[in-house]
Structures are given as structure tokens and as C-alpha cells.
Design a protein that fits this description.
- The protein is an alpha/beta fold.
- It is built from 14 helices and twelve strands.
- α10 links the parallel β8 and β9 (254-255).
- The longest helix is centred in the C-terminal third of the chain and has 21 residues, at 342-362.
- The two termini are 41 Å apart.
């Protein structure tokens, strides 16, 4: 590949702040590695995403920051001093924020590339055009738009556009073994179909399907499909899952909330028959784990930010007040979510499982 300009040898990539956005940026991160195979690639992300980023196997290094790094007035100066010691010659921004561009300017990183959003245009040396076509597409193509522009900027010709981006992460035998061991340790019956339910949503309570709906679905899965139900969640969602299992008529569901680190949770999803999740990071982790996943949407619309991949499926609620951006639903009854019944989700599950069984038979 012939070059137009000098190729940066030490690149820092400011990743996104959320699990779902990080998963959707994986194809673009892979493109950066393809474009600059000999360059040292460092991912710069929040500490809570370090394990996920390392699991991709793409960057050579990960540097992170904690929430208590001093806030927006102090953090840029602290982070700039840290970045300056690394002598980066280029910064690429997947995150949309003025702060990251300001930080890298303070660190005197000479090349700074990204979309000129959030008033940071004057701080960028390479401004990727944010076209109406990119805005209309799924968010996975938003990040790929940056790498495609970088390809045209640094090289004489562009490769063929990626039509079907891959957001999956290869899970090693260590993670898969740890996932299986945890399942067995917690009494999971692996002779039955394992179906994972993810009822939490850290960034929005309005995105949560009601606990009684998850409880009813879990009972139906046990009754109709003889499934082994496994609940996954963050440490802060243990009580939420406990409340759901207390509402169930049947016993035997496994509660792994707070018991599995991120890569082990992904391994459990990979080992499962199917995952049902709210519109939150767990749904994207299921895609990254190459699991079959149904995402429940109520106050948000699936179009641009739904989990991306051939195994991703949607159940969309409906209400006159939707879509909205409320953290907690202000309307009694939470209509967008209660419009989705457990039987409707069960039907979606059985349809997917039947289609997969037919496809498997036809492939023989």
C-alpha cells in the first residue's frame, strides 16, 4: 500500500466510555490495526473497560483512568502529563468529546484525528467529514467512517468498504473454561439448554423490562422448554436479580449477578443457547461473545445503536410517549415496557431456536 504522508508509529486511540459503544467500535479498531500494522497502538479508555479492550487482542497496550481522576477541570491536565511521557505522534478519537481533544493538545500530540464535533474542530489536525450518509447508518459505521477517512488521508487508494463489520471477540480456552467451571460450581444443569437473562441496566432504569416480566419469562422457559435459566448482572444488580427469582414460581434458576468478571460473563453467554437482555451493555457483550441475543427495547429505538451482528434480534415495545430519554419512567405502568409480554418474548425465542435447528439440519 503506497503512502501519501508519513505514517505515525505511535498511536493512541481514545475509546468510548460505555460497553456497548466499545463493542461497536471493535471493527474500526481492527481497521486501524490493518492500516498501521507496524505502529504501536495504545487504547485509552475508562478503567472499567480495560478487561474488555484487552480481550479484543487488538491494541498493543491499554492505558486507563478512574472516575476519581479529578473531574473535567483537573483530569485533562493530569492525563496530558501522562500522555506526554509516552511521546505519541498521533491520536485518534472514537469518543465524541471536547476534553479528549483538549487533553491531547496539551500533551502536544502533533496529529489529532476525529469528527469535528463538540466544538473541538479547531483542535483537530485531521477532520473526518461527518456526512449525512454516516449519520443514517448504524453506529458501527460511524467509527468505521473515521478509519476510512484516515485510509484516504495516509494512503493513495482506499480498500473496499466493509459491508458486514464483525464485532465479535475471540474467547480463549481460559475464559471458556472459567465460564463452564462457574456454571457447574453454581449448580447449573448443562444437560439442558442454558438461556441467559440479563435484567439490569446501569445507565437507565427506564430501559429495564419489569422484574415480574423477567420472572414470568423464566418460569415459561422452564415449563415450555425445560431450559436452565441463568441470570447475569453487575455487582450492583444482585438485589435486582434476587427480587426476580423471589417472584418466580419455579426454583432452580442460577443467579450469577456479581460473580463473574466480564470475560467470564461473555464465556457463559457463548456457552448458552440464547441470551435475553435489556438495551444495555450486556446485549452488546453477547454479540461480542458470538451468542444468539434478543434485546428488549422500550423507551429507545433500535435503529442506530442496537447490538450489531447476524445473531442479534430485537423485541420492540410501543407507547405514545416513546422514544424518550428519561432515566426513570415518569408514567405510571411503564407502558413501553409492559407492552412487551413474556409470551411474546418466549415466541421470539422459540422461533429463533427453531430456525437455527432447521439451518443446522440443512447444513449437513
Amino acid at each position: 500500500m503506497q503512502t501519501k504522508r508519513s505514517i505515525p508509529s505511535n498511536i493512541v486511540v481514545r475509546g468510548t466510555n460505555w460497553v456497548g459503544d466499545t463493542v461497536m467500535s471493535i471493527p474500526a479498531l481492527r481497521e486501524l490495526r490493518r492500516l498501521f500494522p507496524s505502529s504501536h497502538l495504545t487504547a485509552w479508555i475508562p478503567a472499567g473497560l480495560s478487561d474488555l479492550m484487552k480481550a479484543t487482542g487488538i491494541p498493543d497496550e491499554v492505558i486507563s483512568f478512574n472516575k476519581d481522576s479529578g473531574g473535567p477541570l483537573i483530569r485533562p491536565f493530569r492525563m496530558a502529563r501522562k500522555l506526554a511521557t509516552r511521546h505519541f505522534d498521533a491520536a485518534v478519537f472514537f469518543q465524541n468529546a471536547f476534553e479528549s481533544a483538549f487533553t491531547t493538545t496539551l500533551a502536544r500530540i502533533p496529529t489529532r484525528a476525529g469528527y469535528p464535533t463538540d466544538l473541538r474542530g479547531p483542535l483537530l489536525t485531521i477532520k473526518a467529514p461527518l456526512t449525512s450518509e454516516i449519520r443514517r447508518k448504524h453506529q458501527v459505521f460511524y467509527y468505521l467512517g473515521i478509519t476510512r477517512y484516515l485510509e484516504s488521508y495516509f494512503f493513495t487508494e482506499n480498500s473496499k468498504p466493509i459491508e458486514h463489520p464483525d464485532c465479535s471477540i475471540f474467547l480463549g480456552m481460559g475464559a471458556l473454561g472459567a465460564g463452564r467451571e462457574l456454571l457447574l460450581q453454581e449448580g447449573t444443569d448443562l444437560t439442558r439448554s442454558v438461556i441467559v437473562l440479563c435484567p439490569g441496566s446501569v445507565n437507565s432504569e427506564a430501559k429495564r423490562w419489569p422484574p415480574q416480566s423477567f420472572a414470568a419469562l423464566a418460569d415459561l422457559l422452564m415449563e415450555r422448554l425445560n431450559a436452565q435459566v441463568v441470570f447475569l448482572g453487575a455487582p450492583g444488580e444482585v438485589e435486582l436479580v434476587n427480587g426476580i427469582t423471589s417472584l418466580m414460581r419455579h426454583r432452580g434458576a442460577v443467579n450469577l449477578a456479581g460473580k463473574a468478571r466480564m470475560d467470564v460473563s461473555m464465556a457463559i453467554m457463548h456457552l448458552s443457547r440464547l441470551v435475553v437482555s435489556n438495551d444495555t451493555g450486556s446485549a452488546h457483550l453477547a454479540v461480542a461473545a458470538s451468542a444468539e441475543v434478543i434485546t428488549i427495547f422500550g423507551p429507545t429505538i433500535a435503529d442506530a445503536t442496537a447490538p450489531y451482528g447476524p445473531n442479534a434480534h430485537i423485541v420492540q415495545g410501543a407507547a405514545p410517549c416513546a422514544p424518550c430519554r428519561h432515566f426513570r419512567c415518569p408514567i405510571q405502568g411503564h407502558p413501553c415496557m409492559t407492552s412487551i409480554t413474556p409470551h411474546a418474548v418466549l415466541k421470539k425465542i422459540t422461533d429463533i431456536m427453531s430456525n437455527n435447528l432447521s439451518a443446522s439440519r440443512n447444513a449437513r
